[in-house]
Specification:
This protein is α+β, with helices and mostly antiparallel strands. The protein is built from five helices and 16 strands.
């Protein structure tokens, strides 16, 4: 599936994409599911359940990164259902990536998803490597983006941190990246919208996770909560409908506010809209994070 509009990966038929998005739109209008009173989300039933054949999970050394005490997890919602995301401070940590030339005209221009993760300087986002590997293209991150508006500003990307295996071979097992964003008005982005904690070494499927992302055909984020399973020793997968192009880089957030996956990896995130992938966050991910927070 082509998950970003500017990098050609495995394309999927336009008709299938139209059917998926039509199903999402009509289902949202027809079926609302109550969740937590303060974070209600319109739900659509999961479709196209796939046969899971777990291939094991590596005994990676746990390398949890200290984050923000008392941080809330993602909104609760029915497992395997995709719906609209309620705008609040927590979901504002997730945003869309745009070419810098679109900073003054954002509508319809986002290419990927990213999210703020805790760092000592408070200036770090995480996304998929294939979203930011073209270093000749200037990008901006818009947290909480909706309907052409940047409620918390558009933040220019600074230094990008990519795994050597991705830079050398575009190895899909290394499809993960960090980037700094420049301060605005003397404030770091984490001061403005908060941050989730990047937590490599978490066992796949230990708890349910919520994936939040921006499909290219929509101007607001969607989310889905489900349990991930192992696809291979280096990849994990999750069944969530309607995660089409534009959702690359979407964080997988568990109930403790920890990012335990980032949509990307196998086939640039997946070859259907109903199953998405992430590299398994192990020692390579931990080393990349440490490099990103260590440089002055």
């Amino acid at each position: 599936m082509e998950r970003i509009s500017r990098i050609l990966v495995t394309s999927r038929p336009a008709l299938l994409a139209a059917v998926v998005m039509l199903t999402l739109t009509s289902s949202m209008a027809a079926a609302e599911v109550r969740t937590r009173p303060s974070r209600s989300v319109s739900q659509v039933p999961a479709s196209g359940a796939c046969d899971h054949k777990a291939e094991g999970h590596p005994a990676a050394q746990r390398a949890c990164v200290e984050g923000i005490a008392g941080q809330a997890g993602p909104p609760a919602q029915a497992l395997g259902a995709t719906g609209d995301v309620v705008a609040d401070r927590q979901t504002a940590r997730v945003g869309a990536l745009f070419g810098a030339d679109r900073a003054d005209d954002l509508s319809g221009g986002h290419v990927c998803t990213a999210s703020v993760v805790h760092s000592p300087r408070g200036d770090l986002i995480v996304t998929a490597a294939h979203c930011v590997s073209d270093t000749g293209t200037d990008l901006v991150f818009v947290p909480g983006y909706r309907d052409g508006h940047a409620p918390y500003g558009a933040w220019k990307l600074g230094h990008r941190y990519l795994p050597d295996a991705w830079t050398r071979d575009q190895d899909e097992d290394s499809d993960l990246a960090f980037a700094t964003v420049d301060d605005q008005d003397g404030k770091a982005i984490e001061e403005v919208v908060g941050a989730n904690r990047f937590t490599p070494g978490t066992t796949t499927g230990a708890t349910a996770v919520t994936v939040i992302g921006y499909p290219g055909s929509r101007e607001a984020p969607i989310s889905c909560t489900n349990k991930a399973t192992s696809h291979s020793s280096t990849q994990q997968r999750i069944d969530c409908p309607a995660f089409t192009h534009g959702t690359s880089g979407s964080p997988w957030i568990n109930g403790e506010g920890q990012v335990v996956g980032v949509l990307g990896g196998y086939d640039a995130g997946g070859d259907t809209a109903d199953v998405s992938y992430s590299v398994t966050l192990g020692s390579q991910a931990a080393d990349l994070y440490k490099a990103a927070i260590s440089e002055p």
